[in-house]
TrEMBL record:
GO biological process terms held by the UniProt record: response to antibiotic
Superkingdom in the source lineage: Bacteria
Organism: Kitasatospora phosalacinea
Record-given protein name: Erythromycin esterase
InterPro entries, sorted: Emycin_Estase (IPR007815), Hydrolase/PRTase-associated (IPR052036), UCP036794_erythomycin (IPR014622)
Gene3D superfamilies named among the record's database cross-references: Biosynthetic Protein domain, EreA-like (biosynthetic domain), EreA-like, domain 2
Length: 410
């Protein structure tokens, strides 16, 4: 690859330059990040989203965070009373409420919505399940809300008894036992109660789907009921995978999580179909079109990412923009023969690259390697997968994140 061929593929980052590479007909625009907690990527996301709203009619954003907790954020940006600090703490999972870029995004959406018409307001969604690094939420609250929604609309004889659901669910603490993350024997996900709950959750979800026409009078309530149905069934599957003790256990957990992300994003698209496209923001590993791989000791996790699932469902309606970086303070530099090492020679602090030009240039050069991360907190881009990306954004340097995502303690 010559300096000229690399330069031909690159231009300075502007939101308009990045949006120009988004294919026509895109319904879900997925913007990935190579790590979490780096303000540089949150700022980039915010700049792009403002441009998409103003110039391209986007009216929704979904982030890698708890889909139920995000309802608090959506209410706030819609004008509900509340302190922003509380909304950030309670409405964003994974500790993401601590980051300035997320505070700025939520504040901007609320300000935009204050002067927007009812049909023009921006909605905020969580794409992830109610999952944290310490484990998954209990399925009971979502399952009971679903039951109550149906009980208000359907004959009682069609529904399982609420008392049975309460008894089978038990206290939430039996589901949220942190030790179950590492020790399958501590999980209740495959007990007789859990197996029975999965059957009842499936029956309730089927009833909701079969009687959807008569539940359509309150679209917001129906949306919440369908969200509860997806969440309850997804959590029960996840807890069952947590209780598994076979060699595929961790792969199964990753599959279950990305399936929940894909299902949530597809549901968002159905809801937003008449209002405009949606921007999704999550880790590259969740949004990429190819299967995801993560090295874990002597093993490698392998599963179909949410992006690959959505690509198979949406076809040309799905687009993926990948981001990556060069230097991370204080002393993490990419090797010169990696993709990031090559991109670090560009004259721009932030660059937009067209994969249609970048991929053939990388092939012509040969020997371009994937970056070996300095630690577990990020992943470089695979040079062999550039043709499965619609655009690349390269950030020359980022600060080291604080806490868990910087390699320290949470």
């Amino acid at each position: 690859m010559t300096a000229a061929s690399l330069g031909n593929a690159a231009r300075p980052f502007t939101p308009a330059a990045l949006a120009a590479l988004v294919p026509a007909g895109t319904r879900l625009l997925a913007l990935g990040e190579p790590t979490h907690g780096a303000e540089e990527f949150l700022d980039l996301r915010n700049e792009l989203f403002r441009h998409l709203v103003v110039e391209h009619g986007y009216r929704s954003i979904a982030v890698e965070s708890d889909c139920l907790a995000a309802l608090t954020v959506d209410a706030y940006v819609g004008g509900a009373d509340g302190a922003l600090d509380t909304v950030l703490r309670e409405g964003l999972g994974h500790g993401f409420g601590a980051y300035a870029g997320n505070r700025e995004l939520i504040g901007w959406i609320r300000e935009f919505n204050a002067s927007a018409g009812a049909g023009e307001r921006i909605r905020f969604y969580g794409a992830d399940g109610p999952l944290e690094y310490t484990g998954a939420a209990a399925p009971g609250p979502a399952l009971l809300r679903l039951h109550d929604f149906l009980a208000d609309r359907l004959p009682a004889e069609l529904l399982p008894g609420r008392e049975e659901l309460l008894l089978l669910c038990g206290p939430d603490e039996r589901w949220t036992e942190p030790a179950a993350t590492r020790d399958p024997s501590r999980s209740v996900g495959r007990t007789e109660d859990a197996v029975r709950l999965r059957l009842l959750a499936d029956e309730l979800s089927l009833l909701l789907a079969a009687h959807r026409p008569q539940c359509h009078e309150d679209e917001d309530a129906l949306w919440r009921a369908e969200l509860d149905a997806r969440t309850a069934t997804g959590l029960l599957r996840y807890h069952a995978a947590t209780a598994g003790d076979g060699p595929d256990r961790l792969n199964s957990l990753m599959r279950q999580r990305d399936l929940m992300i894909a299902d949530n994003l597809e549901a968002v698209l159905r809801r937003e179909a008449r209002r405009g496209p949606t921007l999704a923001f999550a880790h590259n590993r969740h949004l990429q079109r190819e299967a995801s791989r993560i090295p874990l000791g002597d093993h490698q996790l392998l599963w179909w990412s949410a992006g690959s699932l959505l690509e198979s469902r949406l076809g040309d309606g799905y687009a993926f923009l990948a981001t990556t970086f060069g230097h991370r303070a204080p002393d993490d530099h990419p090797a010169p023969d990696t993709l990031e090492g090559l991109l670090a020679t560009l004259p721009y602090p932030r660059a937009v690259l067209d994969p249609k030009q970048l991929a053939p240039a990388v092939r012509e050069l040969g020997g371009v390697k994937a970056r070996v991360p300095a630690d577990h907190t990020y992943f470089g881009l695979d040079p062999a997968a550039l043709e499965q990306v619609d655009a690349v954004v390269f950030v020359r340097g980022i600060a080291r994140q604080q806490g868990l995502f910087g390699g320290g303690e949470a």
